[in-house]
Structures are given as C-alpha cells and as structure tokens.
Amino acid sequence: MLAEFVKKRRQQTGLTQPELADKAGVGLRFVRDLEQGKETLRMDKVNQVLKLFGQVLGPVELDRDLLKHDFNTNIPNSPKMNFKKGKYKYEKGGDKI
Predict the structure, then answer these.
(1) Domain that holds residue 9
(2) 13-35 residue pLDDT tens
(3) pTM of the predicted model as reported, rounded to 2 decimal places
(4) Cβ atoms of 89 and 97 closer than 8 Å
(5) 45 and 74: one domain?
(6) 38-96 per-position pLDDT tens digit
(7) Which stretches does DSSP call E strand in 1-97?
C-alpha cells in the first residue's frame, strides 16, 4: 500500500526515481526498495520521501481483535501477544518477557 502510494504520487508529479531520491535527500536504492515494497525500511527516510507529498507515517490505533488475530497465530514457536487490561505481554516459547 505504501509502495503503491509513493510510486503513484511520484509518477503523478512527473518525477523519476533518481529525481525523487535527490529531492527527498535519500539514496536511489532506498526509493527503489520503497516502491518495491521492501518490508524493512527506516521510518525517518520514509518520512523524508512522504513529506514531499504532504504525508508522514505515524501511529494508527488498531482494533484489539485484529491484533489478537495477527499475533496469536498457530505457527510453532511464534511470538504470542497476551492482552490483559489494555496491556500486553510478549512471549516467546512460553517464556514471558
């Protein structure tokens, strides 16, 4: 979704990837990774790019039921999230952290 947004806005403004990278103060490789949907990117650099389009990343409140579904999967040895009184505990392999 973020990748599609950046690519679409870049194209709408008539910028090439190198031009976007230059204007945002990030590397060309970063812009390419961002537009290809790389899962791990530095948030500060993402915001440098998004600011050119009048946007920024920020915290978004999610429904607790969605969080339970996402974190409490049936994958063996996966981290678990336990929700109690609005707080959560991170567990891995049965050990509370």
Answers:
(1) 2-51
(2) 999 999 999 999 999 999 999 99
(3) 0.64
(4) yes
(5) no
(6) 999 999 999 999 999 999 999 888 777 766 665 555 444 444 444 444 444 444 444 44
(7) 80-84, 87-92, 95-96
- Are 75 and 34 contained in the same domain? no
Residues 47 and 70 in one domain: no
**d(Cα 35, Cα 58) in Å, to the nearest integer?**
19
Rounded Cα gap, residues 32 and 9, in angstroms: 14
3-state secondary structure of 53: coil
Number of domains in the chain: 2
Residue with tokens 């194209």: 11
- In this structure, are 46 and 71 located in the same domain? no
- Nearest alpha carbon to residue 49 among 79, 8, 95: 8
Domain-embedded: residue 59: no
